[in-house]
Amino acid sequence: MAKPPLNKEPMFNFAEPAPVYLVGVFIAMHLLMMFAPQWLNAFMAKYAVLHVWGRLGLSHAEQVPSLILHGFLHGGWMHLFSNGFMIIALGIAAIRGARLLSMRKGRPRSGTSAFFILFFAGVIIGGLAQWGYWRLSGASLGFDAPRAIGASGGASALFAAGGWALGGVKQMFKFAAVWALINLLIVLSAKYTGINLAWAAHLGGFFAGMIIAPMLVEANATRFSILKR
Questions:
Q1: What average pLDDT does the segment 108-118 reach?
Q2: Among 24, 164, 166, 191, which residue has the fewest nearby CB atoms (within 10 Å)?
Q3: pTM to 2 decimals?
């Protein structure tokens, strides 16, 4: 009698695929930009990098796309992987919580749409917060003006949502304290490390997650785990 075929388990059996796919897009974008022709680099520098609002040489219409597109670019592999880990780990928790909330309300959904709403809201609100900080701090509008890239605003929103899913308002505020402390330490050590952090985007993204998560995600809905068991 022939033996039934063995079911091969994947090495990384992620609990939810959407965050992994999103990080995969970031990796593909980073590889593309490493080998991109000059014209593509110039295009992305103009439309996908978050510059000070009103920077010389850029119209307002040309700056609007960067409010979303800056979330798909990263300054290096460490930047990408740190954001990617947060997005996968906390995104999975948020998706589980969103699915449970939708089931409790009698409208069963996968939770994937809530994940993307939280991520893009964090990117956009984080970008707006960074624009606001630059304007209030009197940042230069010349060609030496500061700029920012990265999915940190979206990751921050998922950090807040993950805290809500894992332990409700108490855990979410614990995460807020940890995130604020980490950002403060990086800012204070920037002189020695050379790391220029867009901390306003981080805090803006986290605030977006705090506001939106209770509407989309069930509190105390899951435990921290990345892989299926």
A1: 92
A2: 191
A3: 0.90
